[in-house]
Amino acid sequence: MGKDTPMTLAKALVPSQSLVTRALMVLGGSLFIALAAQVQVPMIPVPMTLQTLAVLIVGLTYGARLGALTLVAYLAEGLMGMPVFAGGMNGVAFAGPTAGFLVGFVGMAVIAGYAADRGVKGFVPTALVSLLASALLYVPGVAWAMSLAKVAGLDTAAWGADNFGMIWEYYMSPFLMGDAVKAVAAALIVTGGWAVLKGRKA
Fold first, then answer.
1. Helix-then-strand count for the chain, H and E
2. Which residues of the chain have pLDDT under 50?
3. Which of 173, 147, 177, 151 is nearest to 161 (CA)?
4. From CA 115, how far away is CA 176, in angstroms rounded?
5. Residue 71 and residue 57: Cα distance in Å, rounded?
6. What domains, with CATH codes, occur in the chain?
7. pTM recorded for the entire structure
């Protein structure tokens, strides 16, 4: 790898990444996300979990490919019955209105990881990437929630997902502030990691 070739934080911390090392990183990353999903932080109007914060950190740290693999592993763990999703949920969550967000986590990690692979560093650029990835997560999330009635024949009104107005009220607007906070926090954590690494090498 050339001197000026962009490097992710994970590669900078662990230069020699064997297959076993990468597998352990995927396992560790999926466990990190699972634990973060169980943490609730009081906020107005609704509490927020740290799930998407962990997804952003994994993407920004691992890069697109390894980040995507980690999220696929995380979703697979849920499908196998492990209580890795928010609230201790497992694969049953894929039958509900938030399944689009779960699948969208893969894209979220890819977007953040793609930026990391291209050498995006510094708080402001990293925060902007994190905000973009957080915003785009609503695309599959809302698309799935709005299609449930037609695709699965479910009574989506019972979940507050019968129309876009309800989806905005129950699935979007209460979480926007929390998502912005988590995007900024992810940028702070990752850029802080780079600063610590740079300080050790100085």
1. 9, 2
2. 1-3, 45
3. 147
4. 22
5. 12
6. 9-201 (1.10.1760.20)
7. 0.88
